[in-house]
Specification:
By secondary structure, the chain is α/β, with parallel strands linked by helices. It is about 30% helix and about 35% strand. Strand 7, helix 4 and strand 8 form a beta-alpha-beta unit. The chain binds guanosine-5',3'-tetraphosphate.
Length: about 190
């Protein structure tokens, strides 16, 4: 997606070979117009499937996922990273390790929002090691539902997430695919 790549070049900042800062438009301050264009791009690509819901994981996935849900006319389900004291009742829960942030947490979602036989689309801001995708997929399957597609705003293609997602047979679209990072430098994979 050209508009996104241009924005990354203009306002993103590669901290080092692993991390791209995009906090001025994606995961701290958010540009709603760009999010709208991102939602339309995912909507256009994933319209060929029949999905029952869009799923994301709090927090930075919410903005692009909401715009995608709007474009597809679907509800948005936000998986939580901790069990909320307010969310009562039965929850599905699975452990996830973040290699980027070097932390562990549980993905949690109320059982009442996942239904056997349904098919879901996951939208997230970054794909690095693929652990969120695997966690969401495992929760969907525990519910007797399935994960059918994955939409990623920024894929760090030099990390192992993409291969892991493809191994699962999931239809994946990444709007910006980054071949390499170095301090102050971003290189994209050719389309
Ligand atoms: P994985 O699911 O692909 O295994 O990813 P991993 O845990 O390694 O990293 C995901 C978390 O780290 C996400 O944040 C994501 O936004 C953030 N992240 C990964 N790579 C980058 C990067 O290059 N730049 C920035 N800015 N963030 C990155 P999170 O834990 O879900 O937190 P939140 O921001 O959504 O609350």
């Amino acid at each position: 997606m050209d508009e996104l790549k241009q924005r990354i070049l203009k306002d993103g900042h590669a901290l080092n070979q692993q991390v791209l800062r995009v906090d001025s438009f994606l995961n701290h301050q958010v540009d709603p117009q760009l999010m709208h264009a991102i939602g339309e791009a995912f909507g256009k690509y994933f319209r060929k499937h029949h999905f029952d819901k869009v799923i994301t994981v709090e927090a930075s996935g919410i903005a692009p996922a909401q715009m995608t849900a709007l474009a597809l006319g679907l509800p948005l389900l936000i998986m939580k990273k901790q069990t909320s004291k307010i969310l009562k009742g039965d929850m599905y829960k699975t452990p996830v390790h973040s290699f980027t942030k070097e932390n562990d947490y549980h993905l949690c979602v109320s059982k009442k929002y996942l239904k056997a036989g349904e098919k879901y689309l996951l939208i997230d801001d970054f794909l690095a090691y693929g652990q969120v995708v695997m966690g969401v997929k495992s929760i969907c399957e525990e519910a007797g539902a399935s994960l059918g597609g994955v939409g990623i705003v920024i894929e760090k293609s030099f990390q192992p997430g993409r291969a892991l997602v493809e191994e699962q047979g999931l239809d994946i679209l990444s709007l910006a695919r980054i071949k390499s990072l170095a301090e102050g430098y971003v290189e994209f994979l050719e389309a």
